[in-house]
Write a structure and sequence with these properties.
Layout: E1 19-22, E2 28-31, H1 33-38, E3 44-50, E4 55-61, E5 68-70, E6 72-73, E7 79-82, H2 84-89, E8 99-105, E9 108-112
Length: 122
């Protein structure tokens, strides 16, 4: 018999890592609980785009700030940010269903998507 025992049950899972996902359909961002906490758990964010570096940015904002987008909390601790027009104007809408690791840079939550080409292929 050539079976091997599966030993990955206790492998580290990605859920605890800060991530930013583009929801299927490309209409909103899903911000993981740990990413939201890394950003300081704001009520609103301003969406940023680094076209040269192909990086998505989010910075905390006051709700009444121009260009602020509300972070809607979910029961699972994540948050969503409506971003259909942002994703369309940056050409990222086709990345719906993709998830990216994030990091904090000068108070901005950053997702580097430079490895994705214009068609969505890696």
């Amino acid at each position: 018999m050539n079976f091997q025992e599966f030993t990955g049950r206790h492998a580290q899972r990605p859920w605890g890592k800060p991530r930013l996902s583009i929801a299927t359909g490309g209409r909103c961002f899903i911000v993981s609980r740990t990413a939201k906490e890394l950003l300081g758990d704001p009520k609103s964010v301003v969406l940023l785009w680094d076209s040269a570096g192909r990086r998505i940015g989010m910075r905390p904002a006051e709700c009444d700030e121009p260009n602020a987008y509300r972070m809607t909390r979910t029961s699972g601790g994540t948050a969503s940010v409506s971003a259909g027009s942002y994703l369309t104007s940056t050409g990222l809408r086709h990345l719906g269903g993709h998830s990216f690791p994030v990091y904090l840079e000068d108070g901005v939550l950053v997702a580097d998507i430079g490895h994705e080409d214009a068609s969505g292929a890696a």
